[in-house]
């Protein structure tokens, strides 16, 4: 889109988008575009001459909107409901205006402090055990990742690093790549594809454990696979449980799985991308039972 000749204001953009553009109700759900259509409707070169703000807004309607899938539309039933909210839009505007870069504490102390405090709020809303809470002494605590896939990968990479150090402390002659070739991770056959992908990116074996008749991963099968792999000289190091699987919202049995991972020194990650926010409601919190034994 060409650069803009006039200075738009936030309120003009807001009123343009809320009054002139069709609402989510009037737009279809899924974009009618086919692959490549969007690229053809964009100018092939960046603008030399800036355009007026009105023209830029017309481009948004002409070029961008036809290629948007409207997750907010009442006509959209794919995937699952995951919408934004008015407060979060305002918060996004504020963050954009502050221009906050938060890659380290020093880069923007308020950013890191707020992240830590807010994740404690969330942890307490979910009634997570104290070890997950940063509190004032800094133990536990969470960080925000952009996506669930990224969180799973981060956990796998951290677990891999920890496992390599542990193996090297007793076998200093082994190189990192020799250890990596023996590391084995586990997840349910119902887990999201991002878990398998984390294994591929992390360069480790990822084994899929079969589930029971309710598509739930149970302790005995995981235990059996771990024992067989250890007997074959492999090093089990990571397990990803799912609470609310993508295909059918089934729940792995944390009560059975947590103690096995603790005993075997396996890093257990819980992917609750889909169902996780429901645990804030007291009536759904029992679905998270077992997190205290992980
Ligand atoms: C259980 C589960 N895990 C992971 C993901 C991936 O989420 P994201 O797109 O945030 O990486 C999804 C998305 O559907 C999911 O349902």
TrEMBL record:
What Gene3D superfamilies does this protein's entry cite? dopa decarboxylase, N-terminal domain, Type I PLP-dependent aspartate aminotransferase-like (Major domain)
User: Which cofactors, by name?
Assistant: pyridoxal 5'-phosphate
As recorded in UniProt, its EC number(s) are 4.1.1.28
Can you quote a single GO CC term? cytoplasm
Q: Which residues form a coiled coil?
A: none
Keyword Lyase listed: yes
Q: In which pathway does it act?
A: Catecholamine biosynthesis; dopamine biosynthesis; dopamine from L-tyrosine: step 2/2
Listed under GO biological process in this entry are: amino acid metabolic process; carboxylic acid metabolic process; catecholamine biosynthetic process; serotonin biosynthetic process
Listed Polar residues bias regions: 1-23
Q: What class of enzyme is it?
A: lyase
What is a single molecular function from GO for this protein?
aromatic-L-amino-acid decarboxylase activity
Q: Which Pfam families match?
A: Pyridoxal_deC
Q: Which family does it belong to?
A: Belongs to the group II decarboxylase family.
- Quaternary structure and interacting proteins, as annotated: Homodimer.
Protein name (record): Aromatic-L-amino-acid decarboxylase
Q: Which species does the entry assign this protein to?
A: Mugilogobius chulae
């Amino acid at each position: 889109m060409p650069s803009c000749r006039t200075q738009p204001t936030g309120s003009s953009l807001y009123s343009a988008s809320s009054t002139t553009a069709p609402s989510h109700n009037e737009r279809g759900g899924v974009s009618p575009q086919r692959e490549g259509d969007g690229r053809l409707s964009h100018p092939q070169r960046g603008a030399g001459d800036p355009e007026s703000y009105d023209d830029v807004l017309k481009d948004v309607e002409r070029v961008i909107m036809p290629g948007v899938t409207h997750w907010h539309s009442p006509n959209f039933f794919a995937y699952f409901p995951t919408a934004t909210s008015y407060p979060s839009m305002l918060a996004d505007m504020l963050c954009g205006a502050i221009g906050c870069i938060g890659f380290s504490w020093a880069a923007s102390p308020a950013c890191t402090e707020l992240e830590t405090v807010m994740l404690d709020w969330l942890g307490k809303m979910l009634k997570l055990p104290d070890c997950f809470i940063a509190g004032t002494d800094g133990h536990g605590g969470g960080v925000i990742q952009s996506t669930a896939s990224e969180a799973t990968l981060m956990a796998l990479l951290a677990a891999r690093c920890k496992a390599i150090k542990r193996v090297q402390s007793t076998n200093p002659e082994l190189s990192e790549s020799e250890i990596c070739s023996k590391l084995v991770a586990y997840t349910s056959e119902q887990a999201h594809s991002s878990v398998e992908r984390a294994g591929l990116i992390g360069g480790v074996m990822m084994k899929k454990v079969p589930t029971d008749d309710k598509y739930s991963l149970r302790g005995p099968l995981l235990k059996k696979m771990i024992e067989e792999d250890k007997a074959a000289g492999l090093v089990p190091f990571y397990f990803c449980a799912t609470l609310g699987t993508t295909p059918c919202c089934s729940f792995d049995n944390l009560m059975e799985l947590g103690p096995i991972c603790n005993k075997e020194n396996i890093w257990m990650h819980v992917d609750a991308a889909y169902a996780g926010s429901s645990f804030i409601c007291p009536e759904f919190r029992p679905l998270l039972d077992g997190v205290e034994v992980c």
